[in-house]
Design goal:
The structure holds two protein chains of two kinds.
Chain A (H helix, E strand, L loop, with lengths): L4 E3 L2 E5 L4 E6 L4 E9 L6 E6 L5 E4 L2 E5 L5 E6 L8 E9 L10 E3 L3 E6 L1
Parallel strand pairs in A: 2-11
Antiparallel strand pairs in A: 1-3, 3-8, 4-5, 4-9, 6-7, 7-8, 9-10, 9-11
Chain B lengths: L4 E3 L2 E4 L5 E6 L6 E8 L3 E9 L2 E5 L6 E5 L5 E5 L8 E11 L2 E6 L3 E5 L1
Parallel strand pairs in B: 2-11
Antiparallel strand pairs in B: 1-3, 3-8, 4-5, 4-9, 5-6, 7-8, 9-10, 9-11
Classes of the chains: A mainly beta, B mainly beta.
Chain lengths: 116, 114
């Protein structure tokens, strides 16, 4: 199935370090969403982006909607052990001028490990 | 406000059997989407229901079907189970208000086919 290209695939960092991950696509999206998933649980929504160029923060998390509408990145500043998990980007496909579809296209995920 | 709930959380079935999974969306959300998550394929969209109608469908065989009730609760059914159907099945409900769109996931149902 169609997927976004998310990188890096995994990261192992020291507590306190900043983290950056990104997603790229050949398709234009009108909405980008970033999720975090813990083992055995469903993804939890972290940040939603709706406009090209938009920069949005949620605590230590900052995400941006790329100008071309084909990419997005997520930064985590001053990482802590509870940031461990899998982070997913998701794009909502822009179809026929309507953004009402509930279909999201997901990246492969970035597994983050934080060493105390 | 309660989140998205899914039942059951865990299920073990045998090849050839069928299974029904249930999802209750967040109150006020009329759109329910279903996803399959596997280590190899990641998160793959199955279908979406809005106001009891299937609005969008992913690339899965006809063995995968769903429906939505008037109270927005949704079920998905998989018939003639195959080993490859073992996965985490996630339900998500969404709400659009103006340009804002957010999709919230339930905890998932872990299906194991033996």
């Amino acid at each position: 199935g169609q997927q976004l290209n998310q990188s890096p695939q995994s990261m192992f960092i020291q507590e306190g370090e900043d983290v950056s991950m990104n997603c790229t696509s050949s398709s234009i999206f009108n909405t980008w969403l970033w999720y975090k998933q813990d083992p055995g649980e469903g993804p939890v929504l972290l940040i939603a982006l709706y406009k090209a160029g938009e920069l949005t923060s949620n605590g230590r998390l900052t995400a941006q909607f790329g100008i071309t509408r084909k990419d997005s990145f997520l930064n985590i500043s001053a990482s802590i052990p509870s940031d461990v998990g899998i982070y997913f980007c998701a794009g909502q496909l822009f179809q026929d001028g309507s953004s009402n579809t509930g279909k999201l296209i997901f990246g492969q995920g970035t597994t983050l490990q934080v060493k105390p | 406000k309660a989140g998205v709930t899914q039942t059951p959380r865990y299920l073990i079935k045998t090849r050839g059997q069928q299974v029904t999974l249930s999802c209750s969306p967040i109150s006020g959300h009329r759109s329910v989407s279903w996803y399959q998550q596997t280590p190899g394929q990641g998160l793959q969209f199955l279908f979406e229901y809005f106001s009891e109608t299937q609005r969008n469908k992913g690339n899965f065989p006809g063995r995968f079907s769903g429906r939505q009730f008037s109270n927005s609760r949704s079920e998905m059914n998989v018939s003639t189970l195959e080993l490859g159907d073992s996965a985490l099945y996630l339900c998500a409900s969404s709400l659009r208000t103006g340009v804002s769109y957010e999709q919230y996931f339930g905890p998932g149902t872990r299906l194991t086919v033996t």
